Amino acid sequence: MAGPCGRTYRIDPRLDPAACNALTQTASGLLVPGTTVTGIAPGTAVGTERSVDVDVTPPAAGACPENWAVGARLTPVFGTRNAGQADLRTSAQGQQVVLPFSQVLLPEPGVYRLTAHLFGLATWNFNGRHIASISALWFNTATNAFVPGSPRWVLLHDEPGTVNPETGLKSIGGNAVCEGFVTIAAPTTFEIRGLRGTGDGSALANANLQHYLTGGIPQQGIMWQKVSD
Hints:
The chain is mainly beta. It has one helix spanning 203-208; strands spanning 24-26, 29-31, 52-57, 69-74, 78-81, 85-87, 97-98, 104-106, 110-124, 130-140, 145-146, 152-159, 170-184, 188-198, 210-214, 221-228.
């Protein structure tokens, strides 16, 4: 600025030295850093990814004031599928048999809910008291362990020892829902396994009891959904 007798004075701005002060003095003048806001996508519990999508709409160029619109959407991963039919006729009692096409790959770390709607069928054509049963469970293929709380009876039938006098064949069906919560740290595959049993364990019962387990008929299905990071 001009002073007395044509002298010129330079007055430097006085900046607060506090670390939180974004205003700085540069060779070309005062500088205030700009701020750019970006959203985040789902994925992990730690880092820039979450099971909630954060969406950001920036202001128009040159807008004053600069209004930023920020919103959030819950976006957990999920999936569903139909499985096939497991033939348990030749499996040993208590032997776990994988239900075909029941495998589900949980794609990212977090907590998931697993659900399988299953149908079981047992038939026989002999006289003699026995108990026909099928049970099923969710199984972790990475740890070779069943999911706690998921085992269910699909059917359990106490047969007193008679057959249908017209056809010579009797059958019994049953439904069950296998469910469980699992926590994983990396992508992991889970599957449904079924097993059969008889109450008396006789050779006659073992040879003639026919057991089937399915998760693929229209009323059945397998579902999974992430519920938490």
